[in-house]
């Protein structure tokens, strides 16, 4: 059955891949109002659907409205983890079972108490910063959010020199934090628009949570069009290659819906994976996770044209490389108050986090 989307205002502006219509980004939304609205979302639907707005009668004749329902099958395309050479510096830990701390490499590992961030290495008192915390704070550095019982590996993005923690979960190696690569701008002149954002347009927030990307930016639709003449993005349905490298660093790619499914299987299944995916701090009402495998999903919310930035502290949303139709793409959604992890769809023009997986 399809899920009912939340009717909250006028139609969302469309964000594009190469050849799409463009629009400028919105400012921050009132998070309190959005959180209050989230209580009306039907059980079993992701909070990210708050970004799906209602349409006018005219739009109902041409596009899915917010009252449209999701087809029973959302299968589109599944990516396989193709192997490619990489100049990315990397090490990863071997974490097949919860709370394992045995690392498969010795190149680089660090605990959550160390502040070896992508831009600096500053010692911080995480215990003091987290004492009494019951929700999200942008003042807590990302180093304090990692699981101290996991020996993480590291990799360096050769494009900008940023360093990220990595973790091996089952047979997959994941980035253990959100991508923070500036995807730049699309369009030109008066029609210039952003491909990605820092939450509340604050650059310091990207150091904590990475950037929020449109789906067109996540799959790097402009490069796909240039290299293979694939006209993908918002408002367009196309057949993507098996492996979509997208905005990820060399040697890594954007995970497919199937690869997210494999991750959830290792974590005990979609119905209960939320608890072990979530970080051990930062979630609303202290509904934190165990972060047993070191994925460390942070509740950094998302972005939508109608609302701006929303649901920090309440949800984590990650793009997959799998499209759904012209307007939607598959993503992984985690809500603070639900055990179930949602592997469903979201508007392509909304902003979600990116977690890359090793080729």
Number of domain units? 1
Any idea what the radius of gyration is?
19 Å
Oligomer: single chain
Q: Sketch the topology as an H/E string, one letter per element.
A: HHEEHEEEEEEHEHHEHHEEEEEE
Q: What gross morphology would you assign?
A: globular
Strand segment tally = 16
Low-pLDDT windows of residues: 1-121
Give me the secondary-structure category: alpha+beta
Distance between the termini: 34 Å
As a percent range, the share of strand residues is 15-25%
Give the integer mean of the pLDDT values.
Answer: 75
Task: Tell me about this structure.
The chain is globular and about 50 Å long. It is 14% helix and 17% strand. Strands 1, 2, 3, 4 and 5 form a five-stranded mixed β-sheet that branches. A hairpin with a 6-residue loop joins strand 6 and strand 7. It has one domain. The two termini are 34 Å apart. The relative contact order is 0.22. With 359 residues, it is an alpha+beta fold.
